[in-house]
Design brief:
Radius of gyration: 28 Å
Number of helices: 19
Shape: globular
Distance between the termini: 90 Å
Strand content: 15-25%
Structural class: alpha/beta
Length: about 500
């Protein structure tokens, strides 16, 4: 290596190091400002929280077309899909938060036992402080703003890091949140994994992460250094158990809902999308034909030209999905689809029947438009199949068999369980959304989002009218019996022991 080359490399390395120091300094300045803003008490005021939520609502209303274009650029989403999954759902969540915020913020009275008289108690929700939200690329607007609604409604200062894999949406969020919200309390930081690593070195009062299990482990490990509580929204392989129905109408609706639940959300790149289907062998021919029919109905003979299905996010993920299909025994199990176009990052909706259970497509989360169908001798065998694998984020079952329904409820564990439809649990504000075990922990949506970013502080007011002497030393046998009676709420026994009319509780 000559002197000129060494000099150029030295200058380049110096610039990189300088840039890193500047970014670190910038982060420290931002975090200091966020902490000062939170400590000022401003974010705790209901008026401030309402103003920020209304600011988010204005972003969605004023910039709807820009959001649609950003989602089209990053993920190829049709503007109707964009509204359904990332604009309309967030507007709904914001309206719900605005309608209920004062009720959520109010202290909740709680009953105390008579033994505590005279006293009163309440649970007072308080914000956690400065929180970090790391969002995912597949729903880059929705998965950024849904947790942000909860964090702001609860009165926190926030750092939001959108995914660098959806760069247009990331830039949009950075620009609009800066312009529409209080920048002294809400910061959007853009960058890749190196920025994420630097963020995790700082102490936050809560970290909310949406993404892969691998990165979730990194987040949790870093959070442990500061004893920071974490919500992990991960994923996993979400199965759909498909039974047979008495009427053709119900069988047809089942197939249509499976097509939507698999291919209709970001081309299968959704953590709660159907990953694979379990069905009885004798039901397979009718199910496959119905699925083919509804795929054509939704996406036509040329799905790539329909503009109704999203693209794969990038070449790396495209190659990963292609490698799943390229395994010889997997490729031979394809019964429909399988067309790939790397230039346009398009993969045709694909159906596979009984690929090997030890193949990558059946051991890894697919996260794409590939649908394996696994056949069983009996539909009840689906329970043991599911139990033998990590807990999914969602479990779907299409059946009217009440015994099977009861067994799925009682014998399986998942973040959510939905019968005879898919995905809809995500948009219901009254239901919590979150995983269990390997699919994540912590929950949000509606008031659950507010609770996720709050601490319920127990507040007790005590008077001086009554003071039980037997709580204090020196200890005696009678005091022991009085304590036993009191802690059992045996008030009559307590009185009798105190009067000497009873010796034991």
């Amino acid at each position: 290596m000559n002197i000129y080359t060494k000099t150029i490399l030295h200058i380049y390395e110096s610039k990189i190091i300088k840039k890193i120091y500047m970014m670190n300094d910038h982060l420290e300045v931002d975090l200091k400002e966020l902490r000062e803003t939170f400590n000022s008490g401003k974010t705790k005021e209901s008026s401030w929280r309402i103003k920020q939520l209304r600011g988010l609502l204005r972003i969605l209303e004023d910039r709807e077309d820009d959001i649609s274009m950003a989602l089209k650029q990053d993920l190829g989403k049709h503007h109707v899909e964009a509204y359904r999954d990332e604009i309309g759902t967030v507007v709904k969540s914001l309206n719900n938060a605005l309608d209920n915020l004062k009720h959520w913020m109010a202290a909740k009275k709680t009953r105390l036992p008579i033994a505590a008289f005279p006293s009163s108690a309440s649970l007072v929700p308080e914000p956690l402080g400065v929180v970090l939200i790391i969002s995912s690329w597949n729903f880059p607007i929705g998965l950024s703003l849904e947790p942000l609604i909860g964090a702001l409604a609860a009165g926190n200062a926030v750092v939001l890091k959108p995914s660098e894999l959806a760069p247009t949406c990331s830039s949009f969020l950075a620009e609009t949140i800066r312009d529409y919200l209080d920048n002294s309390a809400i910061k959007v930081v853009e960058g890749g994994s190196d920025l994420g690593d630097r963020l995790l070195r700082y102490k936050f009062d809560k970290i909310f992460f949406t993404g892969s299990t691998r990165v979730g482990r990194v987040v949790m490990s870093a959070a442990a250094q500061h004893l920071t509580p974490v919500t992990l929204e991960l994923g996993g392989k979400c199965p759909a158990v498909v039974d047979s129905f008495a009427s053709s109408r119900e069988n047809n609706i089942t197939a249509k809902r499976i097509v939507w639940g698999k291919y209709g959300l970001c081309a299968g790149q959704a953590c709660i999308g159907i990953d694979y289907v379990l069905t009885k062998k004798k039901y397979l021919p009718n199910l496959v034909e119905s699925l083919k029919r509804y795929i054509k109905q939704c996406y036509g003979d040329d799905p790539n030209g329909s503009h109704s299905i999203s693209k794969i996010v990038n070449k790396k993920h495209f190659s990963r999905l292609k490698s799943l299909l390229d395994e010889p025994k997997v490729k031979s199990s394809v019964v429909y689809g399988g067309v790939l176009d790397e230039e346009s990052l398009f993969i045709e909706p694909t159906i596979l029947v009984d690929p090997p259970l030890d193949s990558a497509i059946m051991t890894e989360e697919i996260f794409g438009p590939l649908l394996p169908i696994i056949t069983l001798e009996n539909i009840e065998d689906s329970i043991n199949f599911i139990k033998a694998r990590p807990n999914p984020l969602a479990l779907y079952a299409f059946t009217e068999n009440e015994n099977l329904q009861k067994r799925l409820v009682s014998e399986t564990s998942s973040g959510s369980l939905m019968f005879n439809d898919a995905i809809l649990q995500y948009v219901v504000d009254a239901l919590p959304f979150g995983g269990v075990g390997g699919s994540g922990f912590g929950r949000y949506h509606g008031k659950f989002s507010f609770d996720n970013f709050s601490h319920e502080k127990a507040v007790i007011m005590r008077g001086f009218l009554v003071d039980f002497w037997f709580r204090y030393p020196p200890w005696t046998t009678q005091k022991l019996q009085l304590l036993k009676a009191g802690l059992r709420y045996d008030y009559l026994g307590l009185v009798l022991i105190a009067l000497g009319l009873k010796s034991k509780a």
